[in-house]
Each structure stands twice: as C-alpha cells, then as structure tokens.
C-alpha cells in the first residue's frame, strides 16, 4: 500500500541521545530545557520574535481566541480542517463562514466585509496547504473595522511572504507540529503572537494561568508539551532543509508527470515562498475525482479528500449553509501521496495510473 502521508523519522540514534539526557535529568514536562531550547531555535529558524511551544495546533487556536478575549462572531473559512471552526465554537463564539477564492482556495477577502456585523470581533483565516491568504487585504479590512486577526497556519511552517515569516502577520498565528506535517514533533503546536504583552499573557494561559508559586494572572489551561516531543522537534529541525528539497523534487515530478492530465492546482501567493506541504489537484468534476480515487485504490494507492465536505454543511452543531465555491472545490479536490520517503519512481507510477482515467 502506498500511503497518502507518512511521518518523517530522523536517525533513531539521534533521538535516543536526547532521550538518554531526559532520563538523566528526570525532567519530563513543565517547560524543561529541551522545550525551551526548541522555542529559541524555532524563533531563529522562522525569524519571529515571539513563539510558544504548545500541546497541539488545536489548543493553539483555542489559546489564541482566549488571549484576544474574543466574543460574538468570528469570520472564518469553511474550507479548512474541522479544528479551525470547532475552536471558535469551543470558545463560545459563533463562526460566520465566508466563501473562498476559486484560485487560491483561501478565504476570499472581497466577500469578508459583507459578513461583518456589530457582533463581529475577529477574522480567523487558514493558509490552506501552506498557501498564504491575501494578508494585506485582510489587514486593511481588520484595521477599518477594528477587528482582530488570527491565522491558522497549520500547514504553513517555513513560508515567507514579502521576505518575512507568514507567522508575523495578524495578531496571532498558529501552527501544527503534528506527525503528518512536513516538520513535526510527533504531537505539538505553535502560538506566535505579534507583541510581548500578548506573548506573556499566552504564557500564563499555557500554564493554568499561574504567575508564581502562589499566584495567578489569567484563566488558563494545560497547554504545555513534553521533553520527549521537544526532542523530536530538535532532531527534525536539523533535517528541515533536506525535507524541503525532497518535497520540492517530488512536487516537480508530479508536475511533469501530470502535465498532460486535465487538472488544476491552487494558485500560489505571488509574493510567497513555497513549503510543499501537500500535493492537491483540482479535477473537472466530482465524478472524475471518484473515478481517479477508485482507480488508485484498486492499485493500492491511498489518497485523501482534503478538505471534504465543506465545514459549512458538515458539522452537526451548526446550521448548514451553501457556499458556492467551497461546495464545488471540496467535491473536486484530491491530495495525492506526498512525504519524504516517497520515491520519484513511485510518483511516476501514481501519475500513470491517474492518466488511465
């Protein structure tokens, strides 16, 4: 079976070296030395001033909403992983869906203002597949209407826009370090706020709101991560350039092998670098997608309909709502196998199977 995704694993002995150190210190969690080291190295690597290492990307979103004290309605995209929307509901706010742009597959900033009401407190947008939103347009809208902006950058590790980290845009950005991501620490997430006061508030929130041995500063949760997860993050960071190069080569191989097959790819932000987080293709119709998916499965090749169905129609705790572009895209988009250990010869085989449709 050719899987649709597979975690990158570094040399076992390099990870074991960190594990031995953890055993010697007997310091397993509560922001130990490895967690702190990882935060510092990630700040340097990503070029950001503030960054917190947390439990996962979902907790990161929940912490961001809590730290900004958001109430009422939050404008968001229906084309994302469920955590983007569920975090809004979990924090007692109402998600208001705005349709996506048919080219970038990100939230369409031209449609945001029509959804703003006196109850709107923020915009929560996803950089889908790592492709940056129109951050300049969203910033103008937010400033005009005095709204906060959170970016779900679960897929966007390492991406830059106009020469700076994608995580520097908005009031808070978040990132997932789940095992399926191009850079991971098994389970983990990042919260990247845009100023020091917000960073301190998020530190309190991450640790139950504790500000001292016998004092509290905020309402908080347990958003910390362990030394074992930090160790994997530290080892994997040494291989990030190698990972990027391999994924770029795989992407180019798919491009070449599928160039004569009718499909589209998301149009990437013109001012942004690429991180090659996924390889999604947009097919002519859902009928064609199902034929491709069935043919690949018959050849022991796994794919993923990511994201399907639209969050505006799928969630039992929200009233369903039609979204013209999202409904169309979600039925036609398919992510192909894409991971470090995938070989180009296998990409060619996958492509040949697709081209038999």
UniProtKB/TrEMBL annotation:
UniProt feature coiled coil, ranges? none
Q: List UniProt keywords, sorted A-Z.
A: Aminotransferase, Pyridoxal phosphate, Transferase
By what name is this protein known? Answer: DegT/DnrJ/EryC1/StrS family aminotransferase
Q: What species is given as this protein's source?
A: Moheibacter lacus
Q: Which PANTHER family match?
A: PROTEIN RV3402C, TRANSAMINASE
The catalytic site is made up of: 181
Annotated GO molecular function terms are: pyridoxal phosphate binding; transaminase activity
Look up the domain of life of the source: Bacteria
Q: Which family does it belong to?
A: Belongs to the DegT/DnrJ/EryC1 family.
Q: Which residues carry this modification: N6-(pyridoxal phosphate)lysine?
A: 181
> For this chain's UniProt record, which GO biological process terms are given?
polysaccharide biosynthetic process
Pfam families with a match to the protein in the record:
DegT_DnrJ_EryC1
User: Which CDD domains does the protein's record reference?
Assistant: AHBA_syn
């Amino acid at each position: 079976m050719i899987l649709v995704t597979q975690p990158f694993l570094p040399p076992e002995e390099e990870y074991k070296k960190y594990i031995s150190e953890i055993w010697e210190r007997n310091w397993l969690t509560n922001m130990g030395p490895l967690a702190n080291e990882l935060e510092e190295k990630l700040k340097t690597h990503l070029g950001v001033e503030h960054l917190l290492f947390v439990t996962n990307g979902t907790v990161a979103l929940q912490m961001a909403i809590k730290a900004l004290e958001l109430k009422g309605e939050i404008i968001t995209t229906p084309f994302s992983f469920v955590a983007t929307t569920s975090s809004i509901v979990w924090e007692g706010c109402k998600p208001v869906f705005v349709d996506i742009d048919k080219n970038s597959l990100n939230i369409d900033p031209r449609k945001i203002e029509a959804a703003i009401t006196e109850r709107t407190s923020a915009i929560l947008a996803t950089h889908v597949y790592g492709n940056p939103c129109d951050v300049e347009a969203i910033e103008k809208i937010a400033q005009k209407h005095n709204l906060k902006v959170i970016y779900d950058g679960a897929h966007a590790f390492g991406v830059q826009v106009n020469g700076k980290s994608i995580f520097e845009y908005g009031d808070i950005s978040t990132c997932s370090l789940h095992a399926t991501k191009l850079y991971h620490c098994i389970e983990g997430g990042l919260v990247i706020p845009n100023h020091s006061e917000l960073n301190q508030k998020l530190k309190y929130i991450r640790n139950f709101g504790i500000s001292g041995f016998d004092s509290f500063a905020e309402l908080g949760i347990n958003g910390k991560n362990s030394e074992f997860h930090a160790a994997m993050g530290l080892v994997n960071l040494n291989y990030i350039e190698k990972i990027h190069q391999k994924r770029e080569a795989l992407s180019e191989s798919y491009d070449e092998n599928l160039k004569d097959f009718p499909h589209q790819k998301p149009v990437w932000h013109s001012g942004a670098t690429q991180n090659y987080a996924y390889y999604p293709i947009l097919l002519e119709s859902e009928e064609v997608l199902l034929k491709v998916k069935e043919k690949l499965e018959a050849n022991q090749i796994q794919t993923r309909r990511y994201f399907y169905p639209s969050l505006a129609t799928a969630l039992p705790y929200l009233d369903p709502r039609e979204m013209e572009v999202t409904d169309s895209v979600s039925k036609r988009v398919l992510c192909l196998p894409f991971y470090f250990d995938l070989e180009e010869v296998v990409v060619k085989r996958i492509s040949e199977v697709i081209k038999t449709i």
